[in-house]
Design brief:
- The protein is mostly beta strands.
- It has one domain: Rieske Iron-sulfur Protein, CATH 2.102.10.
- The chain has one helix and nine strands, in the order H-E-E-E-E-E-E-E-E-E.
- Strands 1-9-8-4-3-2 form a six-stranded antiparallel beta sheet, with no helix packed on it. It has a three-stranded antiparallel beta sheet with strand order 5-6-7, with no helix packed on it.
- The chain is globular and about 40 Å long.
Amino acid sequence: MKKYLVLLALIVSFYGCSDDDGMENNFLPNVPVNETLFLNNPQFIDLQVVGGWAYANGGISGLVIYHASSNFYLAFERSAPHLKPSACSKMTVKNSIVMHCDCDGAEFSLLDGSPMTDGIKYPALQYRAKLVGNNTLQISNF
């Protein structure tokens, strides 16, 4: 009997732990993302300096890429995380540090994707960004 109680306690504690804290986003569909960006292309010239950003293809509505530090880049989905994808929910970068949603004016930090507007509980959807060599950036969600 004691074995069963220990086993039951382990099962309950296993299922009671979750890394998403109930924050699963049901607005954005899960699409495969696997993009390669060549940073020496003219469209990505701003990504050659820390603090630079650029739009890229991929994801649901496109990507926003941000050069956060020396060899560290961030990649965010352009679809606002709190709305179903539509023409007005495609975020644009304002003042080089804020992603702005035209549907409702919600704003998200380009530094980490966190919501800057009260009442928004989802951060901007972030993808993996890995620098390969000196001039190639791999963006993926797997």
